[in-house]
Amino acid sequence: MTKTPVHRLLHPTRLLINLTGLAGSSNTTGDDQKKLDVIGNDIFVSAMRGSGKCRILVSEEEEEVIKFDEHPNARYAVVCDPIDGSSNLDAGVSVGTIFGIFQLPDEILGAGKTVGPEALLLPGTQMVAAGFTMYGASAQLVITMRGGGVQGFTLENSLGEFILTHPNMQLPPKRSIYSVNEGNSSYWDKWCTEYFHSLKFPAEGKPYSARYIGSMVADAYRTLLYGGIFAYPADSKTPKGKLRILYECAPMAMLFENAGGMAVNSRMERLLSVVPESIHDRSGVFLGSKDEVQKVIDTYNKYH
Ligand code: AHM
Ligand code: MG
């Protein structure tokens, strides 16, 4: 039997019939209808199971880890957000799938060995690969390996394959674009407020442009292409931040670093070295061009 490649299964156009279905509701034939993020999760889980290479999986949609005990020698652990930005789906905004891949140590491989969530409480530096897809006007796949470059592919529908269209992606060192949910600004720390104020009211030169889609894959993709800064700071309302370390922050941080950018949390620590306390742990995040992230750090340091 020939297998349908996972990117074809995941592309939302294949799933349009279920796009507005509410989880738990029924369609006319009595089958359960599911929201796209539930469907995306189901597809991702079965693709990982079917690969035979994945021992354990963390998904944003699943409270607990999923273990593939039928593959005791599979040496990879995968973390994923199956449909990031799903709150935007009904408005037709780009969404995507974020993933990271860790290689498990030999000691925990093999029949009779157990593997649990603690095996995944690792810094992003331990990932062997990370990336995301974005389902928009076109479908993009951006991927990097540890210590390697960042490669961007575009889905060519007629072939059903991703074609390398953006080889060796590199962020420009600076660009006057910022991307943040300013609706949260009343909750920000003082240094954070000062930083964004300085972009809008610079002592000299033109103010920055604002661009915020509210779908991390889309905001991150634009920032990778054009440069600038994307941020979701920790604040007094969400002191740990909103975005998840394992399957949102760390994969993006690896991509940004490998494309010549920088990625830090709200304490200005290198995001890739942060160890999550639990599989769904969160963090503040600043990703972007080197000079732009350095400005964040400089402003933070004035207050600490
Ligand atoms: P999700 O994983 O539930 O979709 O949430 C993550 C999304 C990111 O894609 C995006 O950067 C952020 O949440 C937007 O949040 P807000 O609507 O608070 O600006
Ligand atoms: Mg998400």
UniProtKB/TrEMBL annotation:
Needed co-factor(s): Mg(2+)
Lineage: superkingdom: Eukaryota
GO molecular function terms attached to this record: fructose 1,6-bisphosphate 1-phosphatase activity; metal ion binding
Gene Ontology CC annotations of this record: cytosol
Enzyme Commission (EC) number: 3.1.3.11
Keywords annotated in UniProt: Carbohydrate metabolism, Hydrolase, Magnesium, Metal-binding
Domain Fructose-1-6-bisphosphatase class 1 C-terminal: 171-300
Lineage: Eukaryota, Fungi, Dikarya, Ascomycota, Pezizomycotina
Name by which UniProt lists this protein: Fructose-1,6-bisphosphatase
Pfam families in UniProt: FBPase (PF00316), FBPase_C (PF18913)
Keyword Lipoprotein: no
Species the sequence originates in: Penicillium chermesinum
The protein's annotated pathway: Carbohydrate biosynthesis
